[in-house]
Amino acid sequence: MIIIAAVTAIAVYFIYFGNSIGYNTLYHNTSLFTVGIRAIYYEFNIFILVIVLVLAGMTIVVITSTLIAQKKRDIAIMRSLGTIPRMLYSFYLKEALFLYIFGFVIGFIFGIIFYGITLLILMVLNFEIVIYIDIIWTPLFFISTLAGIYVVTGYVLRRIGRQNIQWIFSKDIPHDFDAQHTLTFIPRGLSRLGYNFKSAMVNLIRRKKDFIRYIVLFGILITTILTLGIGVLVLSSSSENWIKNAQGENIIVVGHKTVVNNYSLLYQKYYDINLVIDETSQDYTKSEYLFNTGIISSLGSIDGIENIDERLIIFTKIIEKKGSIIFEDGTYGFVGKDRNATIPIVGLDPNDMAQNFEVEGEFFSDEDGFMNITIGDSLAAYSFEYPLYQQLQIGDAGNPFDIKGVVVDSLNNGFSAYFHLKYLNLELGYSENTVNILLIKINSSEMSNTINTIQSVIQNQLGSNFVAQNMNGVFLQNLASMSILNATPLILIILFSIIAFLSLYNYQKGGLHEKIKDFLIMKAVGAQNKSIKRILFLENLFILIISSVYALTISMVLNILVLFERVALPPLYIPFLLYLVYFVVLLVINFLSLLPLVRKMKHFSIKDFEVF
Amino acid sequence: MAHTDEIVEDEGEGIKPIIILKDISKEYEIGDWIVKAVDNVNLSIFETEFIAIIGHSGAGKTTLLNLMAGLDTPTQGEIFNSGVKIPDMSEESLATFRIFNIGFVFQNYNLISTLTAEENVIFPMMLAGMTLDLRRKKAVELLEKMGLADRREHLPFQLSAGEQQRVAIARALGNDPPILIADEPTANLDRETSDFIANLFKELKESEKTIIVATHDDRLIDVADRIITYEDAKICKQDVVCDILKESDRKIKK
Predict the structure, then answer these.
(1) Which helix (H) or strand (E) holds A59?
(2) Pairwise CA distance, residues A564 & A422, whole Å
(3) CA–CA separation, A485 vs A38, rounded Å?
(4) Is A195 in CB contact (< 8 Å) with chain B?
């Protein structure tokens, strides 16, 4: 019951912690990060919650089923005394259900207490928190686990009830186990590898039911932890990649100092939610800010420059235009609410971009740039219903443009739009080559020299108000700030790992109760303590190898289904490295959990036979 | 020859005491209760002697056997087995000592549940470092002798009580130990099996082993050289049926 209560407490804590701290504050704060990044983390946290609840429920069902399986002997005795299988079924199933209900109530109380303590700590640390009362997940968890126990544990009971009484006494070894036949599958030369190895292998194969239960439990724990671990890794590496690509690397911004400063601030808003940009300074169309692309020929000869991206950035009002859409049910309708916003629109040449965006839909091209526009993800989320089916109008009297793509962007937290430079100039009535900033991509090894040269060229040609600013500092700070997004899943992973290891230890203790008699006999016959320790360790090693390999596969599949389709994969060695680290950690934990049991055996007395 | 609780050390020319219990006591604490299973017992058992220990259930016979085999430690007193002071031995050396010196047949068989009959018999031989072929050959021989040739590949729960007992005896004989200790080897068995086991012990008596049996079975008692009556944690009576020391003297004189 303690384990059931512990698992319930964790599940309840996850539900409350995740909802009141993770989603409501961090992921729903529209001032922080871009909506695309928040959305995928939000989705991932829901995924974590579902996994934790499913696996917590499965763990409880496994515990109650194991409990019944361990009572086989009592069940056999009761049956042999004349108890009818239906009565047994009702009696033991009720016991399992009551055990769960009591465990759940205790676990729920503890989960809420831990949640309250966490809230208090976070309040003291000035975190923004939302008191949350769950009416969906907790009842869902309770009812589905109850149903799971009724079905699975009930099935185990019914099977025991139908079995021949003598078979029940075989415990974890199948009653019809054919050692002679099965041995053909085990190399007979196993003894040559040492009797520890052989004993471990034989114990596992013959104690099939225990072996399967062990593998299921180990698998559940490792799947959960690896799924979370790989998910966090994949998410953090891909979301960082998106932002990194959307910003570019080794970028120098050239322009009037006011425009350059504001451009930098627009990026800084990504991590600094308190940053306010003075709106009066946001008219970048003043003549002193604009310059002609003729300067590019002078800059082009400077060593170390890889690419020059000409841009015209303006702050303007945009209006959401209605669009027509055929819904999934085949009906046809109009979407859009004519919302408006003031955002930066960046004119650029799609063939010369210094940045590479993660796009939903497509980025406009040179050919279709006259009619298409690409917008940032936050703008898409908050100002449009179905952006890819709608149009965006620039200004009150401007032309509407089709939204061709939505990009993950850190500029102004994704409240931005990108349009073809040539057609933006036309829209504004400027000459074709008018710009107010240049993004210059520089070879990293020649950064400082190149900046100085650029600085002197632009000051000579454009005047002293024009500057070249290295954006690396701001961009790196944006990337660093994203680590907070991993905080919730990481805390959950650590918490779940601790509980997982505790449950594992308890389970192992329970499992060894069955095996310990054999080990005591081995000792009585003359086996050394270290041999028994090795046998136990090898048994767990085999179980670990099998369960962790399939757990890795399941967690990869789960991540692929939920996340990978939308994200950039980290290098292939990363999940395997994580797997290896976890494997070693589990191995150490396994070893440590065996120590108290081995110590007990060391001080064994023949009287222990009676106990076991 | 000792007929009561006195210790006899190195009497006779050819035969020596192989097990000596000196002022041995063993107490168990069960909650607030202290149960005395062995109370200041002195006893010498000689090489090749066949001892039958009789007494009521709960008298402490099993504890006495466990102490002799080094499976349990006394609360006080000294135990010498084959010249080695048992309580002074480390766990590891005691384990090794048991492999080569003692064959123990438990009252409730205590076969390793995941090993087949043959593997159970092989297990102590494997610990003793016997070669694979030799131990397999020996296990087959022993199981054939026990009438279990066709049950070699069966797991303990697939064997009857009598079969399990015979496997346990085969296991105890695997390393051909000089001492065989058996705790009620015929208890709870059918007539046919207990006859078989009683005859087996008669045969074993001829093999020059020291045999100590706790039993209520007259057929085993009849074979014994000495019958020790054990009641209330004490040896209350010893009957010498065959004085093994005089027998030995006779053999030497011949």
Answers:
(1) helix A35-70
(2) 37
(3) 8
(4) yes
Neighbours of B16 (CB within 10 A): 17
| Nearest by CB: B132 against A191, A530, A602 | A191
Alpha helices in A71-126 (DSSP H): 72-80, 85-124
Q: Which residue has the tokens 């100590």?
A: B212
How many Cα atoms sit within 13 Å of A494 on the Cβ side? Answer: 5
Calculate how close chain B gets to A239, using CA atoms only, in Å: 52
Return d(Cα A45, Cα A220) in angstroms, integer: 18
CB B38, CB B64: distance < 8 Å: yes
ipTM rounded to 2 decimals: 0.78
Distance, in Å, from the CA atom of A86 to the CA atom of A97, rounded to the nearest integer, reads: 16
Q: What angle do the packed helices B161-173 and B117-127 form, to 10 degrees? A: 20
Could you give the 3-state DSSP secondary structure of residue A315? strand
Upper half-sphere CA count for residue A521 (Cβ side, 13 Å): 25
The distance of Cα A267 from the centroid of its chain, to the nearest Å, equals 26
- pLDDT (tens digit, 9 = 90+) per residue, A545-568? 888 888 878 877 777 776 655 555
Give every CB contact of residue A141 below 8 A, 6+ residues apart in sequence.
A11, A12, A15, A53, A56, A57
Residues on chain B touching A526 (C-beta within 8 angstroms): 95-96, 98-99, 124, 127-128
Tell me how far apart the alpha carbons of residues A578 and A380 are, in angstroms, rounded to a whole number: 36
Write out chain A residues lying below 8 Å of B87, CB-based: none
CB contact under 8 A, B155 and A173: yes
Instruction: Summarize pLDDT for A235-251 with one digit per residue, the tens.
Output: 777 778 888 888 888 89
Cα distance between residue B181 and residue B102, in whole Å: 7
Residue A374 three-state SS: strand
Domain segments of chain A: what residues? Answer: 1-171, 172-247+500-612, 249-470
How does pLDDT run across A85-138, given as a tens digit for each residue? 677 777 888 888 888 898 899 999 998 898 888 888 877 876 666 677 778 888
Rounded to two decimals, the pTM is 0.63
Count of alpha carbons within 13 angstroms of residue A304, beta-carbon side: 16
In the numeric block, which tokens belong to residue A549? 């390999």
Non-local CB neighbours of A223 within 8 Å, separated by 6+ positions? A55, A551, A554, A555, A558
